[in-house]
Every structure is written in C-alpha cells, then in structure tokens.
Amino acid sequence: MAEQVDEGAGLLRRHRRSRWNSLPYTLVLLIVAYLAVFILFPIAQQFLTSFSNNVVGVDKVQWVGLRNYERLFEDDDFWFSVQVTFTYMAFVVVGAVSLGLLSALLLNRKFRGRNVARSAIAVPWAFPEISAVLVFLWMCNPTFGVMNVFARLIPGIEQNLNWLSDPKLAMPLVIALSIWKAFPFTFLVILAALQAVPRELYEAADVDGATRMQQLRYITIPEITPTLMLMAVLMSIFSFKQFTLIWLTTGGGPYGGITETLVLRIYQTAFRFFDLAYGATLGVSGFVIVLGLTLLFVYAQQRQDRARRR
To answer: Do both 146 and 288 map to the same domain?
Structure first.
C-alpha cells in the first residue's frame, strides 16, 4: 500500500513538473500568435496590396507589379512629405533628447522638492494627446489665445498672430508641442541611466581634481551614451509615426502640405482619396525607412561596444 502511495505521489510530481516546464513555451506561443495576427499579417497584406490596383470602386483587383513603386519615385508630393518628415523628426529628436538630458542632469542633484519636480515634469507624457491638442489650440487662438498676449510683448509685434495659419509658424509650433509631449519620457530614462553610473568614478575624478564639466564630458556622457542613442532611435520612431498631434493641429496644412508628414500622406491617400494600393506603397516605404533607422542604431551600438572592449 505504501509503495502505491509513493508511486502515485511520484506521478503527481512528474505531472506538475512537466506542466510547469511547458508553461514558458505556452506563453511564448501566445506572444508569437499575437505578433503573427496583429503585426506580421497586416505587414504582409500591405506589402501584397502595394503590388495591386486596389482602389475603392475598382471592380477587379489585379496584380500590377512595380507600377505603384514607379509612381512613388516620380511623385514629387511623396518626396516633399519625406523631406517634411525628416525635418520634423530631426528637430523633435534633438529637442526631446537634449531637453531630457538637461532636465535629468538638473534633477539628479539633491535639493528640497526634488521628488515633486520629477513628478511634475513627467505630466506631459501622461497627458492624453487629444486633451493636449485642445489646450494648445485654445492657447494659439488668434482672438483670445494666451500666446498672443506674450507675443505682443515682443517689440515690433502689434497685432495678434495666426499661429496655425501662418506657414512660417505652423511647423515650429507643431515641433514645440511634440517636444513638450515627448521629452518627459527621455528625461525618466536618462535619469535612471545617470543614477546607474558608479559613484566611484566621480569620487576618483574629485581626487584627481577634475571639474564638473570635465566629469560631465569624460564620465557622465560616455557612460550614458548607449541610453542617449536608444532615446534617439525611440524618438525617431515616435516622431516618424506621429499622427494625432499633427492631424488635430494643422491637418498637414495650413496649405501646400507644409506640415504633412509621410504618415499623414499615407492616411490621406488611403482613406481620403481611397487609393488603397498606393497608400500601401507609401506605407511600405515608411516601413523601410524605419527599418533602416533601426539597423543603423544596431550597427552604431555594436561599433560602440567593440570600441569600449578595446
């Protein structure tokens, strides 16, 4: 009887062990299934659509080969939207990473109210984009907006400015709003990287008589460079795929597509002009650009790792 009980207990333990051993594979399978259904399948479908003549109203969808891509390379509006996208992306990346770094350096010091300041500076990241745009539009209203109150304090400005209707002001304002929305994320990540820098390095630098600027140049920046590079890539992706902030503020205007990025161009082509095939072609081009930026980051990261090992 005792032998049967021991044998049953052993079988139960083996069953539990096998069940727990299969749990990681089950979780990975669920993740792979999610990626396949909601990410890989839409990408593949979009890629196939770019080789067709899929336009709303066409009776029969046919394979047209590279015709849409030939049209893409000859489309001046596409190249202008790419130029606008990279201009917008460059300013947002530089602004968000620089402001995040500066904020992290300041709030990494000990002072009274530091925790409150850290919490306050992270509010824009948690603020809903639609709500942020509504407040921004109210501030930029040409009749009663608070932005004109400050603008009239500048010598030479006597009338209210049409902030979002002026092609010279629309893009800078959209960039400023995007930086305000994005930089708290870079601040939090860079602050965590700063706190991970070994204190022994600064103590040794103090013994050697290094100044604060020398410590920043030769200790802080080299130690957090991988984090800065990662933030640059993430902010590039954030700005490249940004839709809500630009669409709700300018809609790609005020005219001539002055703020129309590639994402807005894709949306207008596919869902305003109902040219699904060409919209998919624009989407594939955007995917290639983002993939190239990611591969560039991986290459730069590997090169930096090899240099640090030497």
So the answer is: yes
